[in-house]
Write a structure and sequence with these properties.
With about 325 residues, this protein is α/β, with parallel strands linked by helices. α1 packs across α6, α5 packs parallel to α7 and α5 packs across α9. The structure holds nicotinamide-adenine-dinucleotide.
């Protein structure tokens, strides 16, 4: 079934993904209320929407309480630190937004009779022993390792969402997002693509963790947003993987970014972070079947668009 979305709440809307989601929704004629405490987000991501009558920003911490007056058709819960640098620096905040923040956001959806969508992550699969990862795989996560604060917060969120679906009849959807990239990533957020872009554009060594043979599958942000909007407009509970199955090694990714930016940088190998996943590739059969979704932007086009943005961003900094 597809539903009409007239007014949508986006938590974490000042962040990388949330701001692109706000853009798409407003562009589609949807009224958007963005809730964000600016913990890792940036108001500059929303500057172009300020003054638009279809958009409202409310600065609030969703772990305290969530209140939005008026009718709401969907609550899209994207608030959470997401890059390893952020969640390692903010472990308690990450666990709180995954637990209390999800609880309060679900409460809002229940009060309004709205659809609820959780931004979960491929990190629920941990360092996977099944490859590629289908939604039926339960994962391989170390709860007491450094990444446990993020991975377990998201696994708890998924359980909480499921409980609200089964025992409170809230209409919910869970999306497991695989590595997504594009404009508005922070150059210093520690994730591979912004780090490699920043280093390559400065002609500095491009730092690859380990021997770079670990793999990632990278999805351009526009494709991801299309998948989220499709899930929000459906009644599919998920979980559903949204990601681009075009897998590459991290070393290959570094070399592609060096080539694309016509950089003179060399690759430098550095220590691999603890519990860094060895492989990552979504099985996207469920997304194709249930949402008619598949990625359209190639790594080449996506990285080129992202590089253009980083050139401008770094020049303005
Ligand atoms: P981001 O850090 O850019 O955005 C997160 C936003 O949440 C920020 O604007 C931050 O200020 C806000 N926030 C954090 N705690 C909050 C709180 N307590 N109350 C209100 N706002 C709060 O990260 P992102 O990459 O845009 O990720 C967005 C969501 O998507 C996260 O839930 C993340 O786990 C999920 N996700 C992202 C990726 C990816 O590749 N980017 C992959 C998997 C999952």
């Amino acid at each position: 079934m597809s539903r009409e979305l007239r007014r949508v709440v986006v938590t974490g809307g000042a962040g990388f993904l949330g701001s692109h989601l706000c853009d798409r929704l407003v562009g589609d004629g949807v009224e958007v209320v963005c809730l964000d405490n600016l913990l890792t987000g940036d108001p500059a991501n929303l500057l172009h929407l300020q003054g638009n009558p279809a958009f409202r920003f409310l600065r609030c911490d969703v772990t305290d309480f969530v209140h939005v007056p008026g009718k709401v058709d969907a609550v899209l819960h994207f608030a959470s630190p997401a890059s390893p640098i952020d969640y390692l620096k903010l472990p308690i905040e990450t666990l709180k937004v995954g637990s209390l923040g999800t609880l309060h956001s679900l409460g809002l959806a229940m009060e309004k009779g709205a659809r609820f969508v959780l931004a979960s992550t491929s990190e629920v699969y941990g360092d996977p022993q099944v490859h590629p990862q289908p939604e039926t795989y339960w994962g391989h996560v170390n709860p007491v390792g450094p990444r446990g604060v993020y991975d377990e917060a998201k696994r708890f969120s998924e359980a909480l969402v499921t409980a609200y679906r089964t025992s409170r009849s809230v209409d919910t959807g869970i999306v497991r997002i695989f590595n997504t990239y594009g404009p508005r990533m922070r150059p210093d957020d520690g994730r591979a693509i912004p780090t490699f872009m920043r280093q390559a554009l400065a002609g500095a060594p491009v730092t690859v963790a380990g021997d770079g043979s670990q793999t990632r599958s990278i999805c351009y942000v526009d494709d991801l947003v299309t998948g989220i909007v499709a899930l929000a407009g459906s009644d599919f509970p998920g979980p559903v993987n949204i990601g681009n199955p075009d897998e590459m090694s991290v070393l290959e990714l570094a070399r592609r970014i060096i080539d694309l930016t016509a950089s003179t940088s060399d690759v430098e190998f550095i220590d691999r972070p603890v519990d860094d996943p060895g492989v990552r590739r979504p099985d996207t059969a469920v997304a194709q079947r249930e949402l008619g979704w598949e990625p359209r932007v190639s790594w080449h086009d996506g990285l080129a668009r992202t590089a253009d943005w980083f050139v401008k961003e770094l020049a303005a900094a």
